[in-house]
Amino acid sequence: MNYLLEEKFSKIGAEHAPGQEGRQNIDEIQLRGEKIEGKPVDFSHGDVDAFEPIPGTLDIFIEGVHVGGKQAYTEYRGSEAIRKNVAKKLSNFTGTTIDPEQNFIITPGTQGALFLAMGSWVYRGDKVAIVAPDYFANRKLVEFFDGEAVPVQLDYLQTTTCAGLDLTQLEEAFNSGVKLFLFSNPNNPTGVIYSPDEIREIAELAEKYGAKVIVDQLYSRQIFEGRTYTHLCAQNTIDPENVITIMGPSKTESLSGYRLGVAFGSANIIGRMEKLQAIVSLRAGGYSQAVLKSWFAEPEGWMTKRISEHQAIRDNLIDKLRASGYFQLRTTEAGSYLFPRIPKLDVSISQFVKILRLQAAVTVTPGTEFGSQFTDSFRINFSQDHAAAEGAIERIIKVVEEYRK
Amino acid sequence: MNYLLEEKFSKIGAEHAPGQEGRQNIDEIQLRGEKIEGKPVDFSHGDVDAFEPIPGTLDIFIEGVHVGGKQAYTEYRGSEAIRKNVAKKLSNFTGTTIDPEQNFIITPGTQGALFLAMGSWVYRGDKVAIVAPDYFANRKLVEFFDGEAVPVQLDYLQTTTCAGLDLTQLEEAFNSGVKLFLFSNPNNPTGVIYSPDEIREIAELAEKYGAKVIVDQLYSRQIFEGRTYTHLCAQNTIDPENVITIMGPSKTESLSGYRLGVAFGSANIIGRMEKLQAIVSLRAGGYSQAVLKSWFAEPEGWMTKRISEHQAIRDNLIDKLRASGYFQLRTTEAGSYLFPRIPKLDVSISQFVKILRLQAAVTVTPGTEFGSQFTDSFRINFSQDHAAAEGAIERIIKVVEEYRK
């Protein structure tokens, strides 16, 4: 038994991760009152039955299968033709130049891209700045690669004009030797967008200290009315060799089942990511890669409709949560996440999410997955059947009523 | 620039890895004589156009897509229903009991299983015994996890009654502090099978020294006439918590394009592998997982026919290679690999494989990918169109004639 390895794995536990709820120990949970009936809703991820994949994706997959060996066995960084196709579309989207040969890799999901990018940049002992709160895997990746996570606060409840990143703390982090800054934009779990000024300052600070930046832009196409999105990779102030951008079609486009993501930026790091991919899983599924042709090539009006339907769900759920008077929250600006803060309860956040599941058939992700201090918040992904999501929010409110101090 | 990280990545280079040949620098290559015409053959992997996937797999994939969200978002260790389905079939195949809940994980290819298993067992500084020659990723995985590879010789050319593992060297390795033994059976690249005695002795030695074993059985269904296969996991002498077995349908079954593998064994390590999968790529592609239903459920006679077709190709290619008088080789006993030793040439092995590609349109993998000392061998995967493979072997012989000392 290697105790150091055992300790490392104890820090990357997946018991509370989205989708793993079925493996939780629920022996200690005692419910107050009866079950609250209603259609079960799993808010831990989007419902691809309510919001289906881009039309035609399965047909493109089938075409890929019929291409045969050439599609099954691509280069580790992905099929050359598909890299060209997608790099061009992402160059347009981000307003940058992406060379499909040097600066682009196709990965098994954005999770795959994150893992490869972190494994290519983090050496043991390296300090990595991580936003609090941010995507739960970010800190686990730092742990796995034996780095040291340095938290930078996001004061998302204190402002509405920017994401609320503490830039002074970020500069202190760089000044104290942080080599790499990893963050999601829009932020997961809060759904806030970094303002143009915040992105400009992040780029300038990184350049000043020679730090690297990985930005996870998974939800950057689903921008709600009145909001603008700024691409870090399009800032001229930062050395492009110090930036990796990650995207993928798993969320808004509902293609998670195909396990597709991409990373673009630094040629040196893309090269390392490919070497690492060669020993991690060889390549993103060959036939699946073909599906990327449908990405950024959706039918006319499809994306607009999808965004407005999500905005309508957002508005309804937020109205209900606010009307209850129990929650503090900030309106989602992009993506499908909401991160409500709950009042003091008689039970812990870990017990609360188990109670929600057992008593109200509602699955949410505890705030502690996004930073150990978020013991009073939970995340939902509201990409769900609209009526079912409303019913589930009503049940959450009832459970909070029942268990609050 | 982190020079230690740069050095690590220099050791896991993928330039000569199968399928990456298009990225090689060929500026320094000078050809003797004309191009040798013939149908191009890529022996770096099997040709899934010549040997197609198990019939019906695409239909099962499409059914998986139609299942929707439940199939797209499985537990990280894979869909419960499919784990049950496959664990049962593999219990029958191996003659062991595999609990689908505790001892089984579905991974993105067997490469994914190897990475997760190694990442779950290797801590920095750990000594890991690696067979020479063996699958090229094995040593790279030890490098990536900061372990120390301890080679154990396979004298595959000196015997025909067993694989030829130097068991004395293996015991010395365990005695010197090696914690883990990783090997492929049948051996990649030589295609030899470990004898019942060898497997028994490996199990006994591992148990004696408390060492762990990972056995990669990727090609263990494609056993040629007159050969028997022994499953290490079925040896009663070794603590089952110290064994992980890896398999998958990418080779004989031609399902590589779906990126599917499995690992089974130690509940503790399967648990760690799932935690690691959560940050590496979340899960094997959800819809792809469904395809595992076709595995070990092939149409009557399909597997027998596939094996006999491969045996016929093997026999033809070996006859030609032997008739030339240039090569030393051992007859493949299982799987589709051949690992001929070539005579002394005027060019290096690295130049030789580039010349083969440029002058004869034949792609092979240099022996050095399987151990730095194998500068006089190359690997081919003969799962190819039969006639094309024969033509390619004739061209290889001509190139050897041209360049030999």
**The CATH topology of the largest domain in chain A, please?**
Aspartate Aminotransferase, domain 2
The number of E-state strands of chain A comes to: 12
Q: Determine the mean pLDDT of chain A.
A: 96
Largest sheet entry of chain A: 7 strands, mixed
Organism (chains A, B): Siminovitchia acidinfaciens
Keywords (chains A, B): Aminotransferase, Pyridoxal phosphate, Transferase
Domain Aminotransferase class I/classII large (chains A, B): 71-396
GO molecular function, one term (chains A, B): transaminase activity
Feature tags:
homodimer, 405 residues, alpha/beta, Aspartate Aminotransferase, domain 2, 2 domains, 7-stranded mixed sheet
Explain what you see.
2 copies of one chain form a homodimer. With 405 residues, chain A is α/β, with parallel strands linked by helices. Chain A has 2 domains: 3-52 and 301-403, Aspartate Aminotransferase, domain 1, CATH 3.90.1150; 57-294, Type I PLP-dependent aspartate aminotransferase-like (Major domain) (Aspartate Aminotransferase, domain 2, 3-Layer(aba) Sandwich), CATH 3.40.640. Chain A is 38% helix and 12% strand. Chain A is built from 13 helices and 12 strands. In chain A, the strands form 3 sheets. In chain A, strands 2-8-7-6-5-3-4 form a 7-stranded mixed sheet, with helices on both faces. A 3-stranded antiparallel sheet of chain A has the order 9-12-11, with helices on one face. The first copy, chain A, is globular, with a radius of gyration of 21 Å. The mean pLDDT of chain A is 96. At the A-B interface, helix 1, helix 2, helix 3, helix 5 and helix 6 of A face helix 1, helix 2, helix 3, helix 5 and helix 6 of B.
